[in-house]
Design a protein that fits this description.
The protein contains eleven helices and 13 strands. With 293 residues, it is an alpha/beta fold. It has three domains: 77 residues, Winged helix-like DNA-binding domain superfamily/Winged helix DNA-binding domain (Arc Repressor Mutant, subunit A); 100 residues, 3-Layer(aba) Sandwich (D-Maltodextrin-Binding Protein, domain 2), CATH 3.40.190; 102 residues, 3-Layer(aba) Sandwich (D-Maltodextrin-Binding Protein, domain 2).
Length: 293
């Protein structure tokens, strides 16, 4: 399986058309078709469904697309790292994290380094803990910012000084907006939009299940989210009350935040894989981060 052919396959998946992909790649359509057919024979699976106007991926094609994206990204990251070995400190640093106000500690170090090493570029990936840990484990990220709970068996970590506060995001004309804080009894009366981190699969050690107790399964959970922006849109359109962390959504207009009572907080850790080999740029970032915390 050649990297060049994987890139061809990803272009077809992106364009949804062999003709458009061939034009984008500056190949003839028969040449591109032949390369794709060879790839299907090599893997012994049909990857594409060729329609009259559009090409769609089979189930096996979707699997290859995800793997090919990781492979291409890893190759690009490796090439970038080797370009920085011989001389001045430059290159790319890859950081992933969930939405948290604690990202300010990361960005403060980024700003400090950029003022002295302008040739270092930073790439921030936003996703839930599952996504970030998967990319860390594959070597696609150098560092991660993870909201508890976290299994630290595979990672080194620095616990950041502040905890994130949980509460609800609602419109300012919502009945609960009149309260200073909200209780579990308050939440029982409204449809809820919850973070995936609140689901039992992810929250076993986080304190969520203890906070909700035996009433968790009776809550009217109508939707889940992994990034707050879309949760805010659902709140605005009346889908429900979103349970989220403080300081993430824009509350300057018609949204407001009210904390849970009793208080529910989650710690945040800056992590990296044990035995990780860093580029000079990533090593500089880690050393600076350690010196700050």
């Amino acid at each position: 399986m050649e990297l060049r052919v994987l890139k061809y396959f990803l272009t077809v998946a992106k364009e949804g058309s062999i003709t458009r992909a061939a034009n984008s790649l500056h190949l003839t359509q028969p040449t591109l078709t032949r390369q794709l057919q060879n790839l299907e024979r090599e893997l012994n699976h049909k990857l594409l469904i060729r329609g009259k106007y559009k090409v769609m991926l089979t189930k096996e094609g979707m699997i290859l697309k995800k793997r090919a994206e990781d492979i291409v990204e890893m190759v690009q990251k490796t090439e970038s790292e080797f370009q920085t070995i011989s001389g001045a400190i430059c290159g790319d640093v890859y950081i992933g994290g969930g939405e948290s106000d604690s990202m300010k500690y990361v960005t403060a170090v980024i700003k400090e380094i950029q003022s002295k090493f302008p040739d270092i570029k930073f790439h921030i990936y936003s996703g839930n803990a599952e996504d970030v840990m998967e990319k860390l484990d594959k070597g696609l990220l150098d560092f991660g910012l993870l909201i508890h709970p976290v299994d630290f068996s595979k990672y080194n970590n620095i616990t950041l000084p502040e905890k994130d506060l949980w509460g609800i995001l609602i419109c300012k004309d919502h009945p609960l907006a009149q309260k200073t804080f909200v209780t579990l009894e308050d939440l029982e009366h409204f449809p809820l939009i919850v973070s995936r981190q609140m689901l039992p699969k992810y929250s076993k050690e986080s304190g969520f299940l203890n906070w909700f107790g035996d009433k968790y399964n009776s809550l009217n959970i109508v939707a889940t989210y992994n990034l707050v922006y879309n949760a805010g849109i659902m709140v605005k359109t009346g889908v429900g009350v979103a349970i989220t962390l403080d300081k993430l959504a824009d509350t300057s207009s018609n949204l407001c935040f009210r904390p849970l009572y009793p208080k529910l907080e989650s710690g945040v850790d800056f992590v990296w894989k044990k035995e990780q080999l860093f580029s000079p740029a990533a090593k500089l970032f880690l050393d600076k981060f350690k010196s700050n915390f």
